[in-house]
Amino acid sequence: MKTVAADVVLVQPPSADIHRAEHLGLAYLASGLRQAAVRTQVVDAHLSGIPVRRVVDLVAEASPRVVGVTATQPDAPAMVAIARRVRQRLPAAHIAVGGHFATFCHGGLLQDVPAIDSVVRGEGDIVFADLVQRVLAGEEWRALPGVSFRRNGVVVSTAPGPLVTDLDRLPFPARDTAGIAMARSGWLSMSSSRGCYGRCTFCSIRAFYGLQAGRAWRARSPENVVEEMTWLARGHRCNRFTFRDDTFVGPGIRGKERAHGIADQMIGRGLKVEFAVECRANDVERDLFLHLREAGLRVTYIGLESGNQRQLDRFCKGTTVEDGRRALSILSDLGIEARVSLIMFDPDSTLDECLDTLRFVAAAGVLRNAAGFGNTVIPLDGTELREKLREQGRLRGSYLKGYSYSWRDPAVGRCARALASLARLLRAVPPPFVARRH
C-alpha cells in the first residue's frame, strides 16, 4: 500500500477480527470528501494486514491536515496508539476519531488521550465533512453540531448533528480497497440501509443512531442500490456482493416491499450476480426469500443468538426459538445457505440454556455453519447490557482495555472459558460475507 500527498487520511487500525472486508464507513466519508474536491486517502490496516508502525508511516508520508481514525471497542488500543504516534510525527495535524466506540467513550478518550483533538459523535457523513472543511480553511470548528473536544482541560460536547435523511443523495462509496477485497475473497461489500429496528440489549446500533434526530432505520431506494451493483459489476468485474446492512430487510411492510423492489430491479436489469444478506429470524418469509433467491441470493446470515427462549428474552431479541426454526426451514427448502450467529454465554446463562442452543443448531442441521461456539456476550459501551452490569456492580475492566463481568453461575464461566479456548484451536475462518458485530 502506498499513499500520496493528501488533505485527509482516513484510517482503520489493524484488528484481531478474523472477518476482513472493505470498511464502508470510511469509503462513504472518502467519496463525500472527494466530491467536495478534498484530497483524501484511505488506509485500511485491517483489510491490508499491516501493523500500526506501517500505518503511521503511511499517514506521515501523506502529510495530511486532518487524520480521521475509527475502531471497534476491541481495537481501541490500536486506535489510541495510532493517534499518539501520528501526533509525534505530525504535530500540527488535526486528529479526529469517530464510530460507535468513540461516540460512546468520547469523554474518556478526550481526557486520557491528549493526541486526539476531536470526537465526531454518531453518523459522521455530514459532521465530519463540515469539520474537515473548516479545519482546512483555518476556520473555527468547535461550534459544529455533533463534536466533542477539550476546552481548558474540560470536555465539551455540542448538540447532536443530523442524520442523513436521504441515503440516495450520498455518492457511492470509494473503492480504494476493492482490489484487496477481491483478491482475498472475490466478494465486494455494499450497504443498502442503515440502522436496525431491533432492541437487543447487547447491541449498540440502535443507541448509536438514536443519539441523532431522525429515523434510526433508513434505506436506499431499490433503483439506487442496483445502480451501484451494476456499476461495480462493470467497473470491477465483480458478481458477488455482501450486504453489510445492520438488517437487510428492515421493519414491517415497507421493509419487505423494499427488499422485493431490490429483487425486481436486479431481475429486470438482467443482473447476473450472487449476493449475501444479514437479517433477523422473523424477517424470513418464504415468498420474499424465494424472490431474493431468483435475483441471486445465495447466503443468509441470521443472528439467532440462542436456542433457548429465556436467553432470547433476556437479550430482548424480539424473536422466538420457533422463529429461528421456521427461518432455517424456509432457507433450507429454498436452497439458500444459512449461516447463524450465536451468543452461547451471557452473565446470567445456565448450562441448560447453553445445551438447548447446541441441541437446536444440531437438530436444524446448521451445526457446521454456526459461528459463535464459545462466544460470550461483550458488554459494549452504549448498550443496555453494559449499563445493567455496571449498576449491579458486576462489570470489570475498562473501556480501553476491554470489559469482563462476574458470572451468575461460576460453572458457566469456567465452561465458557474452556469452550472459547477450544474454539480458538478448531475454528475455521468463516467466509467473507459474515458480518462484523459493532
What can you tell me about this protein's structure?
The protein is built from 17 helices and 17 strands. The protein folds into 2 domains: 8-157, Rossmann fold (3-Layer(aba) Sandwich); 185-426, Aldolase class I (TIM Barrel, Alpha-Beta Barrel). Helix 3 packs parallel to helix 4, helix 10 (222-235) runs parallel beside helix 11 (252-268) and helix 11 runs parallel beside helix 12 (286-295). It has helices spanning 24-35, 45-48, 52-62, 76-89, 100-104, 106-112, 125-136, 178-184, 205-210, 222-235, 252-268, 286-295, 309-314, 321-334, 351-364, 384-391, 410-426; strands at residues 8-12, 40-44, 66-70, 94-98, 118-120, 147-151, 154-157, 188-190, 193-194, 218-219, 240-243, 274-279, 297-305, 337-342, 370-371, 395-398, 402-405. The model is unreliable at 428-438 (pLDDT under 50). The strands form 4 sheets. Strands 2-1-3-4-5-6-7 form a 7-stranded mixed beta sheet, with helices on both faces. By secondary structure, the protein is an alpha/beta fold.
